[in-house]
TrEMBL record:
Protein name: Exonuclease SbcC
Gene3D superfamilies for the chain: P-loop containing nucleotide triphosphate hydrolases (3.40.50.300)
Segments forming domain Rad50/SbcC-type AAA: 6-205
Positions of transmembrane segments: none
Keywords of this entry: Coiled coil, Exonuclease, Hydrolase, Nuclease
Top-level lineage group: Bacteria
Coiled-coil segments on the chain, per record: 239-273, 534-561, 752-779
Organism: Vreelandella songnenensis
Length: 1022
């Protein structure tokens, strides 16, 4: 950053407007700010720092305390600074909060603090407005541009009076903050944080895994893994015994249920027969109503034959009524038309009377026409005045609108700034929403999987039950096949023995035992079994055995699946924690809430971008309006003068004309009214004559309509008499005594269809009930009702016994499967824990080293900054050696700090006179100034060399040279001159007379009773 121009108004000791054009000092100048004590030399540095950050260099006075007491009350306190940075020029202006006179009336009002920031064109004109008014926005923009906050700016670019030792004596953590900003070493800090986060995550995972292993044993109600093995081995024979007892009880239960079910079927048949008999009795109760419905249908059929005569009579009555209505309407219309004709006669007489005024109106019309020409010139002048006044009001309104719009833009900018702060705070509050949503969505998926496992568990239990039943059946079939095969083989052997006995002879040895005596030879008994039959029975036995083994494998597979399912179920419940007990809807609601927060975060992020874009648009609009207003004000004044001139000419002409002839437009309007009155009266006379003729025509037409309606009424009466005679004749020939009997016998189609359906449904249902009763009588003729309570008691007892044996077997088998699952889970958990511990040995070691938790407690970033600090100290020591005549050098302390205090960036001074290193705090005032100056210059060199994004092109030094002897002063000036030749601007504030002699380019600050002033002196640099 290089200052270009500084303007101070009513600031500090400067009562008026004082401007310092740094371009007059030359390119990269070395200059002196000179003046008596209290004149305002340090206030120049205060103004620079205040313009950039809204703070003074010492930060001991606020902006509100920097108003000049000698300044005129109407002059605002403000500071403006033009500066150059990385190829672009900027202008920043600040106004502190202060009291100022009211624009209207007496007293004062509070002027709010404000700040503006512009980019500048190549000619120094204001270009784009970056900040319209907001102080906080200006602070943020300036800090972003320079890369330094106010405190860091004071430590590396401005050495204020009494503050030059701060950077030299700063603690390691403060120096780390400054250097990390200057050298942009935040990437190493992010590496530290990433390693620390990774190590912490692995450490938490290891601890969680250990708790998981303890939880596995606790969930299985086990004290240790040896207890697990002991209990698992003891359960195996108990499970087999319990299974055998369950199979026996199951067989008994099936037999008892079969007997009970057969009896229930027989009992239902007896109950169905009794229900049918009751239904038939209830159905026969409706027989009387059905007979009455049949008679009603017959009467309706007879009444249907008289419908044509009745219909003709009704139509004749309707025609007579319609004719009467038409005749009444025609009579009423004729009466109304008589009244309208009388009204038309009266209207014609009134129009004739008004037409008698037409001659007088035509005479008035002629007189007004003569005045119009006389007022033509006045009208033209009035039109020119109105046009000029409209132009004046238009440009004045445009000016006021632009001024109001400028104020509106300012308020919008403030509102956007406030809105941005709110959105950024909300964005920070919602920062964790996406990660929380992802975590809850994982929990939701796990919770859905848990419900799926619950359903699968129920299905597996049913499958296990079916597999057990199938295994029992296969076991019975295998036993029966084995027994049958053995019986067949024994019978085959008996048949072979009988055949062999037939070959025995007396005193001949037995071919089997060799005995000569045969007391009981075998004989044939029953059917003889062949070898083929034996082999067939053995094949059937082998098939039954294979089927049994398949059923056993299927049951074992289901048991294994059930154990794995239980293990998965337990794992998911442990992962879900308390969410496992909550309904899925609660977790869904939590996910939905977090999803809304994540969506809100995206909307807030978009809103922030939109607000930034809107603020940039307002800045550009504000700059354009500001330039427009500067050109509008002269045009408004010119339009006002032209309108006033035309108004004066119009008034002179108006006074020369009669009062009633000054306005041609008014005369034309009066003339138009007269013309309209004349035309209206002529038109009224013609319309009244035509209205009377039309009314007389309509009256004649109404008389004709009444005559026709009367004739139609007479014809309809004759037709009604004829229809009544035909109806009475038909009724007399029918079986009905009168019209009432005929009406009672009539049925509409819906009622007739309903009665017919009721009769048919009754007869159909009666036939069905009689057929079903005959069938049940035939089936149950030789059957007796069963004893259901006794059979149900036997079935319930067998079922209870089976359930008891099943519960016993399931409890033992479940416990054994649980223990097997725990064994597998523990084996996997031990393997996973070993992997996590191996990972932690790697990441934990890297994290401890990078975060400075071992050895000298130096973090990775501080180690990198230490290397950079070494480079700074090399440059600084070269200058300090020269200023101290070879005595002092700046070095980095090698001994670590004690305790938990972070170290690695502490400074010592190497004293060649004693050969020892000692703290920099032990240096005297002059020595401290030399060391601080050398450190600032060395830091500037290294930052420029590393190009860390921050340019230290300027250095201001406030006092300190008075503490140097002549030799050290000469060395300091030589160093600053060398630095100047390297392209730096260096400003020195000092009372030392030798500096004034050696530095011809200077800014003189003069004090007076009316306030201080500044003046640039000396030869300009080429």
């Amino acid at each position: 950053m290089t200052p270009l121009a500084l303007t101070m108004q009513a600031f500090g000791p400067f009562a008026a407007v004082e401007t310092i054009d740094f371009a007059q000092l030359g390119k990269s100048p070395l200059f002196l700010i000179n003046g008596p004590t209290g004149a305002g030399k340090s206030s120049i540095l205060d103004a620079i720092c205040f313009a950039l950050y809204g703070q003074t260099t010492g930060d001991e006075r606020s902006g509100t305390q920097m108003r000049c007491d000698q300044a005129d009350a109407s002059l605002l306190t403000e500071v403006s600074l033009d500066f150059y940075l990385r190829g672009s020029a900027y202008r920043v202006r600040r106004v502190p909060q202060q009291e100022r006179p009211k624009a209207r009336g007496e007293g004062t009002t509070t002027q709010s603090a404000e700040a503006q920031l512009w980019t500048l064109t190549a000619t120094g004109e204001e270009d784009e407005c970056l900040v319209a008014r907001s102080v906080s926005d200006a602070n943020t923009q300036v800090q972003t541009l320079l890369g330094l906050d106010a405190s860091q700016f004071r430590q590396v670019m401005v050495l204020p009076q009494g503050k030059f030792r701060e950077l030299l004596l700063a603690e390691s953590k403060d120096r780390e903050k400054i250097f990390s900003q200057l050298f942009q070493t935040h990437i190493f800090q992010r590496i530290e944080e990433r390693l620390r986060t990774q190590a912490n995550q692995i450490e938490r995972a290891v601890n969680d895994h250990r708790q998981h292993i303890r939880g596995i044993l606790t969930g299985g109600a086990l004290e240790s893994e040896p207890a697990l093995e002991q209990e698992w081995q003891a359960l195996t024979p108990q499970v087999a015994s319990a299974l055998q007892a369950f199979e026996v009880a199951q067989q008994r239960r099936r037999q008892a249920e079969k007997r009970r079910n057969d009896a229930q079927a027989l009992q239902r048949q007896f109950e169905a027969r009794e229900a049918l008999a009751a239904d038939k009795a209830r159905h026969l109760e409706q027989q009387g109503a059905i007979a009455q419905s049949q008679r009603r249908l017959e009467q309706a059929a007879r009444a249907q034959a008289l419908h044509p005569q009745q219909t003709a009579l009704l139509q004749a009555k309707e025609a007579r009524t319609s004719a009467q209505t038409e005749q009444h309407q025609a009579q009423a219309g004729l009466t109304a038309q008589h009244a309208q004709t009388q009204h038309a006669v009266k209207a014609l007489e009134a129009a004739r009377q008004r037409s008698e005024e037409l001659p007088a109106l035509r005479e008035r019309h002629r007189q007004l026409g003569e005045f119009i020409h006389q007022g033509q010139q006045l009208s033209e002048l009035q039109a020119r005045f109105v046009h000029a006044q409209s132009a004046w009001q238009q440009v004045d309104g445009a000016l006021k609108r632009d001024e109001a719009q400028l104020e509106s833009i300012r308020k919008q900018g403030e509102a956007i700034g406030t809105r941005l702060e709110q959105l950024q705070q909300e964005f920070q509050r919602l920062a964790s929403a996406p990660s929380a949503l992802e975590r809850h969505e994982q929990l939701y998926a796990q919770r859905q999987e848990l419900e799926k496992l619950d359903r699968q568990g129920q299905e597996l239990a049913v499958q296990q039950q079916r597999a057990s039943e199938a295994l029992d059946q296969r076991q019975d079939e295998a036993t029966q096949a084995e027994r049958y095969a053995t019986e067949q083989e024994m019978r085959w052997h008996q048949g072979q023995a009988a055949a062999l006995a037939l070959t025995l002879a007396y005193q001949a040895p037995c071919p089997v035992c060799g005995s000569l005596e045969h007391p009981s030879p075998a004989t044939e008994g029953g059917d003889v079994v062949t070898q083929a039959q034996v082999e067939k029975a053995r094949a059937a036995q082998e098939t039954a055995r294979q089927t049994l083994e398949k059923a056993q494998r299927q049951q074992a597979q289901l048991a294994q699946q059930f154990g794995y399912h239980r293990e998965q179920h337990q794992r998911l419940r442990q992962q879900l924690g308390t969410w496992a007990e909550q309904p899925l809807s609660a977790l869904d609601s939590a996910c939905e809430s977090l999803r809304e927060q994540a969506q809100r975060r995206l909307r807030v992020e978009r809103d922030i971008a939109e607000q930034h874009a809107a603020r940039e648009g307002l800045r550009r609009e504000w700059g354009a309006l500001d330039r427009t207003l500067k050109t509008q004000r002269p045009a408004v004044e010119k339009a006002r003068e032209e309108a006033l001139r035309l108004e004066s000419q119009r008034d002179q002409l108006s006074q020369a004309l009669p009062e009633d002839a000054r306005d041609p437009d008014a005369l034309r309007r009066t003339l138009g009214v007269l013309e309209q009155q004349i035309a209206t009266r002529e038109k009224e006379w013609e319309q009244a004559r035509q209205a009377l003729a039309d009314s007389q025509t309509r009256q004649a037409r109404a008389e004709e309509q009444l005559s026709g309606a009367t004739q139609r009424l007479e014809r309809s009466g004759q037709a009604l008499e004829m229809a009544q005679a035909e109806w009475q004749a038909a009724l007399a020939q029918s079986p009905f005594e009168d019209e009432a009997a005929f009406g009672a016998a009539q049925l509409d189609d819906a009622a007739r269809q309903s009665l017919t359906a009721q009769v048919e449904a009754y007869q159909r249902r009666l036939a069905e009930l009689e057929g079903a009763l005959q069938n049940y009588h035939a089936q149950l003729a030789e059957q007796a009702p069963p004893d259901m309570p006794a059979l149900k008691a036997l079935s319930d007892a067998a079922q209870a016994e089976e359930q008891a044996r099943l519960d016993e077997w399931r409890a033992l088998d479940s416990r054994r499967n649980t223990l097997e699952g725990i064994r597998r889970t523990l084996a996997a958990a031990h393997a996973a824990q070993a992997e996590l511990e191996a990972d932690y040995r790697l990441w934990g070691t890297l994290s401890e080293i990078a975060n400075g938790r071992t050895g000298h407690r130096i973090s990775l970033q501080r180690f990198v900054l230490g290397v950079l600090l070494d480079d700074v100290l090399i440059q600084a020591s070269e200058r300090l050696v020269r200023m101290s005549r070879g005595r002092y050098q700046l070095v980095r302390r090698e001994d670590p700090s004690k305790g938990n205090k972070a170290s690695g960036l502490e400074l010592d001074v190497a004293d060649t006179y004693t050969g020892k290193n000692r703290p920099v705090a032990t240096l005297s005032g002059g020595e401290s100034f030399m060391a601080a100056l050398a450190l600032a210059l060395g830091l500037s060199d290294v930052v420029q060399a590393y190009a860390g994004g921050i340019q230290l092109d300027t250095l201001f030094i406030d006092e300190g040279f008075g503490s140097l002897d002549q030799d050290a002063l000469d060395q300091a000036i030589n160093m600053l001159s060398e630095l100047q030749m390297g392209g730096r601007m260096i400003g020195i504030i000092s009372h030392v007379s030798e500096l004034k002699e050696q530095m011809p380019v200077r800014i003189e600050v003069r004090a007076s009773r009316q306030g201080s002033t500044v003046q640039v002196q000396g030869v300009l640099a080429p």
